[in-house]
Amino acid sequence: MSLYALLKRDLLIAFRNRGELFNPLMFFLMVASLFPLAVTPDPQFLGEIAPGIIWVGALLATLLSMDLMFKGDYEDGAIEQLLVSPSPTMLFVLVKVLVHFVVAGLPLTLMAPLLGLMLSLPESGFAPLMLSLLIGTPILSLLGAIGAALTVGLKKGGMLMPLLILPLYIPVLIFAASSVQAGVQGDPYIGHLAFLGAYLAMSLVVAPVAAAFALRISVSR
């Protein structure tokens, strides 16, 4: 199967299974909706903590669908066929990451301004919020591919995977939320986004290779 055919097939499957498509979005919305009820509805206070709420919600919502990245191909034997084919495994991983970003990361990014309004995020925070999500959510998908590949053959891999990849997510969470907070306070936020861009570049180089090796280990055991 060509990489284009794989991309097209995975996107069709994702959009047909609308329940799996909307689960991360609904979780993202629920986190932002319930948080004011648990803390305080005061707009000023919510505006101050909105960057952290939105980014924690995006991170946890992304984790919901991460376990399914390679699961279907592992169960039907497609990964085994791929590993013996001449196509580089890391390109297969990149296709899977792209599909996950389109299905999970991009909708979360587009939904973020609505949650920003709900949480009284100041206008100056919307630009860094959108930019940080556009740069940060692909990083979450790339790093998550490593954990998904390592646990694809385990019966309870969905419980183990967050423990493996959450430490890698911490720098993304810190610098992304800090960039939005800097924008809210009127401070320069380009430095925070530059770090995210560097982290994205490193993830693009390292994560597909690491996930490809992890898939070989998972299939061989």
What is shown here, in short?
The protein has nine helices and no strands. It has helices at residues 3-16, 18-38, 43-66, 71-75, 78-83, 89-118, 126-151, 157-185, 190-220. The radius of gyration is 18 Å and the shape is elongated.
Characterization of this structure:
With 221 residues, the chain is mostly helical. The chain has one domain. It is built from 9 helices and no strands. The protein has helices at residues 3-16, 18-38, 43-66, 71-75, 78-83, 89-118, 126-151, 157-185, 190-220. The radius of gyration is 18 Å and the shape is elongated. The two termini are 25 Å apart. The model has no long low-confidence stretch (mean pLDDT 84).
Q: Estimate what percentage of residues fall within beta strands.
A: under 5%
List low-pLDDT spans: none
Coarse shape: elongated
Overall residue-averaged pLDDT value? 84
- Count structural domains: 1
Order of helices and strands: HHHHHHHHH
Descriptive terms for the model:
0% strand, elongated, mainly alpha, 9 helices, 221 residues, single chain, cell membrane
List the helices and strands and how they pair.
Elements: H1 3-16, H2 18-38, H3 43-66, H4 71-75, H5 78-83, H6 89-118, H7 126-151, H8 157-185, H9 190-220
